[in-house]
Amino acid sequence: MKYECILFDADDTLFDYGMAESHALIHAFAHFGLPTGAQEYAASYQEINHGLWKELEQGQITAAALRVERFNRLFAAHQLSLKPDEFSEAYLRFLGEGTFLIQGAVEICGELAGCRLAIITNGFKHVQQSRIKGSPLSEVFEEIIISEEAGYQKPETGIFDYAFAKLKLSDRRKVLIVGDSLTSDIRGGNNYGIDTCWFNPLGKPGDPEILPTYEIRSLDELVEIVNRA
Questions:
Q1: Which is catalytic among the residues 9, 180, 185, 195?
Q2: Is 171 an active-site residue?
């Protein structure tokens, strides 16, 4: 077996972030007296949030600023009188309840039990830890590497240095990162010199400048990759 350690991205690789986000928005808006708010503003929020996470990857905004700025922009765009900082706290609390998994997540972790498994994720420490610990995968991972704790986010090499130190890894040839994002997971892995596996269930077009070692449509395809490597 070539790969001794598999670094899994969390959101939209093992955990269904869309469902967690929907859960958090519905409950946060309801908490502040807008029971239809999620339905009305979810699309706008997702566009704003996606753009800010791209800015975070490029070092243009900090994680601390992002968590409130996304709601500041959303409420300004729709003339809502809600307080962004208070809404953010409620949203993150409800997001931490979002333990929804991608189909096949439990099974693939069981199939790869012969490897060391770890999570490497961009996100907020208490939210990600709550989601992972509350899920059926709570006892699966040797380490949970979270960008807020590491002080770096994917694709920065610093988060991989942090992960390798925590896991006491040295041979990059024996490590594989699996994730859904070309710009954070795959670019980060490529830059660090480890093999990469792009989880692309929707068949999105690739990027000729960011080439993964492998590409899969479903998580169960990982078994063959690890076994044949």
A1: 9
A2: no
